[in-house]
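Students often ask why we bother predicting the structure of a whole assembly rather than each chain alone. The short answer is interfaces. A chain on its own may look different once its partners are present, and contacts between molecules only exist in the joint model. In this exercise we take two input lines together and write out one structure for the complete complex. Read the inputs first and try to guess which parts will touch.
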Amino acid sequence: MQAIFISYDQAHHQNIIEILDKCSCRGFTAFGNVQGRGSVKGEPHYGSHAWPSLAQAMFTFVEDDRVEKLLNALKELDESKPKLGLRAFVWPITHTI
Amino acid sequence: MSLYGSAVKRPIMTTLCFVTVIILGLFSLVKLPIDLYPDIDTNSIMVITMYPGASAKDIEQNVTKPLENSLNSVEHLKHINSTSRENTSVITLEFEYGYDIDVLTNDVRDKLDMVKSVLPDDAENPIIFKFSTDMIPICLLSVEANESMSGLYKILDDAVANPLARVDGVGSVSISGAPKREIHVYVDPAKLEAYNLSVEAISSVIAAENRNVPGGSFDIGSNTYALRVQGEFDDSSQLASLPVASVDGRTIFLRDVARVEDSLEERTQQTYINGNQGAMIIIQKQSGANSVEISNKVMKMLPTLEKNLPSDVKIGVIVDTSDNIRNTIASLVETVLYALLFVMIVVFFFLGRWRATLIIVITIPVSLIASFIYLFATGNSLNIVSLSALSISIGMVVDDAIVVLENVTTHIERGADPKQAAVHGTNEVAISVIASTLTLIAVFFPLTLVTGMTGVLFRQLGWMVTIMMIISTTCALTLTPMLCSQWLRLRNKNSKGMLWYRPIEKALDKFDDGYAWLLQKVVTNKTVTIIICLGIFVGSCFLMKHVGTEFFPTQDDGRLGVNLELPIGSRVEEAEASMARLDTMWRRKYPEIKVQSYTVGPASSDNTYASLSDNGAHIISMNITLTDPGERDRKITEIADLMRKDLENDFPEFKKAQVMVGGRQGGGMGGQSTVDFEVYGYDFDSTDKVARDLAEVLKGINGTADVIISRSDYQPEYQVDFDREKLAMHGISLQTAAFYLRNRINGSTASQFREDGEEYDIKVMYSPDKRTQISDIENITIYTNRGQGVKLKELGTVVERYTPPTIERKDRERLVTVSAVVDGVPMSQVVADAEAQMNSIDMPPGVTIQIAGSFEDQQDSFSDLLMLGLLIIILVYIVMAAQFESLTYPGIIMTSLLFAFSGVFLILYLTGHTLNIMSMIGAIMLIGIVVKNGIVLIDYITLNRERGMGIRTAVVDGGRSRLRPVVMTTLTTILGMVPMAVGSGQGSEMWRPMGVAVIGGLTFSTILTLLFVPTLYCVFAGRGVKNTRKKLRKKLLASKKA
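Now the answer. The structure tokens for the assembled complex follow.
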């Protein structure tokens, strides 16, 4: 089982839920209205006067065999709308209850 | 969930909510009455007190003064005017606008109760009379007749006036020009004396004979019968055979001493319509009733009524005030529609997408129609003010929607799904949309707080625009995002549909680049820019001197009223002869005249309308209806000028002549303005002299017409001076003697002759040929208690005297008013000229001159509006300071107001308009509109700065990217106003100055704002940066030292 942290422009939210569904990943935890900026050239998402847009973040924990498919789908989404911004980070889960 | 979130999620609910609003609005629209102005409550109360037999001076001293002193303490009183003439005191109380007249009337009644005991014993109880605009007739109908002329009054009364009076909302219907039937008993004084009879004796015989007396009831067998004596005459000819006395056993019949004539009233008003004698029917409405509705009903009834009239009686329309209302409203509706079209074109031009255009344009009908619900709910009408409000708002209600749509489009273009884009895009701009609406509300809401007459007009404007702004913002935050989410798609720039738009887009891009280039130049030469801009502002301030001021623009409603006066005492025949000449001359000379009617002679007492206005044998009033303004080349003021010249050159016999545009004088809205100079002073001679001098001065000033002195001349009359000693010797009281005189000359109403349910006076008096000389009066026989006849000349003498004229007072001081119509030049100029020349008048001690009339109203309103302007500027500043969390930026934005006012003066100067109430309102509206541009610009520049750009780059980049929204919203507002400013329909004179002022101010200020505000921002931001650096350096040094 792997943990995937997805951070994205809030406009992506609906699409990401769809992708999760498509990849048969049911569980997720999303954080609405979070701030952030990309490491290279990503536009800041502060919800402020200067940077009014906001980001969302999501944790989803998926079986190993689905990680690849999910990441591919997310990459495709990101590339289709380069201005919105979407990043995903994966790390292994050692224990769960 | 946020408002826009749920709106986007629930499109059906959102759509239906607005559909409901539209349905309710359309329902209200159908029910809304049409009127010219919002309801203006009356603000005057008249108190009329009769004191028979008292002279003007006695009335002033004993009736008017005590009443004035007591009434002066009624609350909210603005002015107290009075006229004291023989027998009558009329006090007019003028109150501040906006108070309940019924409450004030009660206050007045209380005060009158208190003072009643102080009045002379013979004075009658004061009568309270509420005067209102409702007294102005809404329709004047003309009646032409040939054979039926003698019986016209009865015909009209039965077949026209009574049915019309039954129409819902009609207050009173009066007939003038159709004399009433009257039965005259013309006695021969010589014969009366021979039989030892008197007029009184004959009157009492007639009264005693013309009686029906019930005799009770009596029983015969099993029945009860009523007993009556039926003595009333069936026919007027029976009167002649009435026995009046018995002398030496011979019966004397009325025909032996008198001539009985079944004829018409002796002294009556005569009406001529287009040169033919006829009658006039005057229809007044009930207070609060709707003129247009009533006139519609009246006009609908006329054809049916005409069927019941004899074939020679023709009814026509002289004046139908609702015509003007209907035409004015129609031309304003056209203006609104044009504005809608222009705004649509501008939006389409800038966006290039029909869906986006539709989304934005939809907010216009929604906001506009919703405001009808307010009008309906508050009982208002569709009038000039409410429709102007619509016209003004069209350009502004789209602004919020444009901002929202633009941001949503940006989101979509970045790749967001339309639904998500709609929610997030709206969320980002919601606060600034609300803030910019708040600045506009800060401008329009205070309009609802204005008092006075201007307040009555602008309260509705304030409410309407405020409501429309709130609705449009709600619309922009719900309907617009919802429609965006449904209709907007990511635009494919290479699609075929967009090909035609590419050149426009290129041009717009070039425009942006050009502006950015200019901005770059401007911010590098800050000092030069600021000096040039301020120079332009200061320069335009000098124009202020050349732009005249006036109260309200003169409206061309195609109506002229002419009041003419021959010297006092002229016979009616004189007036008739002059009028016949004038009538034919004008109708030949001015083909624009549609109907021309005039009335000469004294009004009978039962004609409510005529007896309220000035009337007399020497007074002529004339009503002229011209063709519609669109159908003629000459303006109404030009025609009025020519008419004034005609009167001056060809009719020297008229002592006073007034040509009133709009049928009324200086009535504030619509009529030509008047400047009244009030000469205060107690002494008649000195004030008369000053008034005459002043009138000469005014006549010499360019741009005055119809200079009139209010105090009339001393009136010649005959008076009988009774010798009280001689009266006492014969045991006759002065009153008895006076009544003898009156009964013989004026006649005594003996009884009423009844026929077909109508009553006609039977009047006994000397036959006309026996009352033409002074000796006829001297030979009147007065009978003592013992029945002994004494000639009047033995009891007193008949002398010719001049009665002092009516005494007018204002605010408890005597005054004479010299009034002049302002014609062709601004009012301010006439006043300035007059004031300069007034110094040359020799002023006796105790005499002062004050300026009143439209000028006073204008001064009041202008100071009201200036205060309002100040209040609005403060409010707008507060809203902006709160939004920017800064005290400097709002200050910078506010500088654009300077150029707005420059623009207003510049365009008023160039187009030759004056600064009047309407253009002032335009200027006040500008505060909100102009500031909005500044907000958009500064907001984006600060955003750029927050994103880390340097000052100059932030300014140039911000300016470039905000140019289109600024130009677009400005253009929608300007083009929304263009139909108002260039309209030539009926009533357009009223709103043209407002449209012109807004267009001028907005254009000028937008151009300068786009350059000046960024420059000023650079200066202040640069200083801010320097200050911060200085502080940092100090801190650094301090820490180093430590």
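Check your guess against this: The interface with chain B takes residues 9-15, 48-54, 80-84 of chain A (CB under 8 Å).
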